[in-house]
């Protein structure tokens, strides 16, 4: 029987300190309860996002998982809490609160959850320190990072040591869009989510390749949210650019050569797009992800995979769960055996 692992889900502690009051900056996200089962995430006095208790309650999540057929969720922070703009020590405090909460949730329900951490990437030394704590003290299985850090793309030399340590310590990275490019042109229609985020993700993936990060760290494992955004579809154009502008090259081979350790979640809503993703990168590099518990999420998780009948049983089983465990360097047999016993 297949095991369904939802790689892309977000969580936040029910109680987070009021850093606006503590540090005197209105940019900090705060959680204002609207009822026992809901709250608003507030940023600078405005509602950033309305959320329900699904976003903090593991018990509520497990109810949903059981109803929707999900065996395991991979928990990651909500990107608005990255706080890359803040002073590094303050952002480290925010990171620790979330990482501790995620680790505690996993410890409470080890057969249902796997945890990813967050680090304050505005300071490489501090981010490496927290990544080390996440891996070796908290037992988290990877790190979620944003697509840019205060407007710096991921190939900026400031982040080289972070990527070096992530490769050395075998820490897989989940790249999630935030602070999207062109936001000033997307005030209407929620285009920031539907147009900006896919474009932002493509820029992050292209930066890692064209900037030479992946050539320098060939064993670094990276997964991109939302099916990689528009990256899979512009990759041939990136190759063409590499061909015609040799003076701009920072890699010895064209961009498409460097995608072997790129993974993509399946959240592109379309069987046609999913098939393209699999044809382009191989079925072993696609993981099921739903974006639980937010409005754009896929319900039920894995629907696009279920709606792609051309997948062989082996491919389907891999994309629905086994690939995520591989990406996170988890012993599949041990985990699945423990889940059967429970």
From TrEMBL:
Pathway assigned to this chain's UniProt record: Secondary metabolite metabolism; quinolate metabolism
Listed SUPFAM superfamilies: Metallo-dependent hydrolases
MF term (GO), any: aminocarboxymuconate-semialdehyde decarboxylase activity
Family: Belongs to the metallo-dependent hydrolases superfamily. ACMSD family.
Documented EC number(s): 4.1.1.45
Top-rank EC class of the record's enzyme: lyase
Gene3D superfamilies, alphabetized: Metal-dependent hydrolases
Residue ranges of every copy of the Amidohydrolase-related domain listed in the record: 5-329
Subunit structure: Monomer.
InterPro entries for the chain: ACMSD (IPR032465), Amidohydro-rel (IPR006680), Metal_Hydrolase (IPR032466)
Name of the protein: 2-amino-3-carboxymuconate-6-semialdehyde decarboxylase
Keyword list, A-Z: Decarboxylase, Lyase, Metal-binding, Zinc
């Amino acid at each position: 029987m297949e095991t369904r692992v939802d790689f892309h889900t977000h969580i936040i502690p029910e109680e987070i300190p009021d850093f606006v009051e503590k540090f005197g900056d209105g940019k900090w996200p705060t959680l204002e309860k609207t009822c026992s089962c809901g709250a608003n995430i507030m940023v600078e006095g405005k509602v950033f996002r309305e959320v329900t208790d699904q976003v903090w309650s593991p018990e509520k999540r497990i109810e949903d998982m059981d109803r929707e057929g999900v065996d395991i969720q991979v928990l990651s922070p909500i990107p608005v809490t990255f706080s890359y703009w803040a002073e590094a020590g303050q952002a480290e405090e925010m990171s620790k609160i979330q990482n501790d909460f995620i680790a505690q949730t996993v410890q409470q329900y080890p057969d249902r959850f796997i945890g990813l951490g967050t680090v304050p990437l505005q300071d490489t030394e501090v981010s490496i320190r927290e990544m080390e704590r996440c891996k070796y003290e908290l037992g988290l299985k990877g790190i979620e990072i944003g697509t840019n850090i205060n407007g710096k793309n991921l190939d900026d030399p400031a982040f080289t040591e972070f990527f070096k340590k992530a490769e050395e310590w075998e820490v897989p990275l989940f790249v999630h869009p935030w602070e999207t490019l062109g936001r000033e042109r997307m005030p209407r229609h929620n285009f920031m989510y539907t147009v900006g985020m896919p474009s932002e993700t493509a820029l992050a993936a292209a930066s890692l390749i064209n900037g030479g990060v992946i050539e320098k760290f060939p064993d670094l494992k990276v997964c991109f949210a939302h099916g990689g955004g528009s990256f899979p579809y512009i990759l041939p154009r990136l190759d063409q650019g590499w061909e015609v502008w040799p003076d701009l090259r920072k890699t010895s081979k064209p961009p498409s050569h460097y995608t072997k350790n790129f993974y993509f979640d399946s959240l592109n809503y379309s069987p046609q797009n999913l098939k393209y993703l699999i044809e382009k990168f191989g079925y072993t590099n696609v993981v099921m992800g739903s974006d639980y518990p937010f409005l754009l999420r896929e319900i039920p998780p894995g629907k696009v995979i279920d709606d792609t009948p051309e997948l062989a049983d082996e491919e389907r089983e891999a994309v629905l769960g086994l690939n995520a465990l591989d990406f996170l360097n988890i012993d599949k047999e041990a985990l699945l055996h423990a889940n059967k016993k429970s």
